[in-house]
Amino acid sequence: MNETPWAFIQLVTESRLTTLDLEKVRHLVATEIEVLSAVAIHLAAQVRHGGVLVAVRSLGNIRERLAYDLLERACRSQLAAGRLHVRATHTDLAASIGSSREVVTRALKGFRADGIVKTAPGAVRVVDPMRLAMIVRAFAI
User: Fold this and answer.
1) Looking at domain 61-140, which CATH architecture does it have?
2) Domain limits, the chain
3) Residue 69: closest CA among 86, 55, 83
4) Edge-to-edge order in the sheet of strand 123-126
5) Per-residue pLDDT for 62 more than 80?
6) What's the pLDDT band for 5 if we cut at 50, 70, 90?
7) pLDDT tops 60 at residue 94
8) Which of 45, 81, 86, 46 is nearest to 66 (CA)?
C-alpha cells in the first residue's frame, strides 16, 4: 500500500482495536515467514468472505438475503446515528433483495417472532444482530 487507507469499522460486540505501523509491518512481512503467513491467511479469509457475501446476495434464500440486507443497513445506521435502526419500507427491502413486499413482510414477521427485530411503519430495529449474522453464516457452511 502506498498510503494509509480509510477504514470504517462497525463493532456490535465488545472489541479491541490495534493500530499497526505500516513500515514495521512491511519489514516483518519481508523478514518473518510467520508474519507473511498470517497476512496471507488474513487476505485469503477476506477473499472468501467477499465470495460468501456475493453468494448470499445472489443465491441465498429470502431469510438469508434479508438478514444480510438488514445487517448491512443497520451497520451503516449505527455509524451515523449510533443505533442498529433501519429506515426502510417493506417495499424498499424487497427491491433490495430482489423479492416482493409480501414475501419480505412474512420474513420480517418470522424475525419479529424470533425476537431478532422490532418493526414499526417504515422502520426496523435490529434487536439481536448476532442471530442475524448466524443466519447469514449458516449459508456459508
Assistant:
1) Orthogonal Bundle (1.10)
2) 22-55, 61-140
3) 86
4) 85-87, 123-126, 117-120
5) yes
6) low
7) yes
8) 86
Answer with the residue of higher pLDDT: 56 or 82. 56
Burial class (CB in 10 A: 0-12, 13-18, 19+), 125: middle
Q: Residue 140 carries which side chain, given as an amino acid letter? A: A
Q: Find where cell 477504514 sits.
A: 7
Are residues 101 and 94 in contact, defined by beta-carbon separation less than 8 angstroms?
yes
Q: Using an 8 Å Cβ cutoff, are 105 and 94 in contact?
A: no
Q: Is 53 exposed, middle or buried (0-12, 13-18, 19+ CB in 10 A)?
A: middle
- Helix ranges (H only) for 32-89 are 33-59, 62-81
Rounded average pLDDT over 43-70: 89
Question: To 5 degrees, how large is the angle CA 127–CA 63–CA 46?
Answer: 85
pTM of the model: 0.66
Q: Which of 19-33, 78-92, 115-129 has the highest mean pLDDT?
A: 115-129
Query: In angstroms, what CA-CA distances link 6 with 1, 3, 9, 70?
Result: 12, 9, 10, 24
User: What's the pLDDT score for residue 129?
Assistant: 93
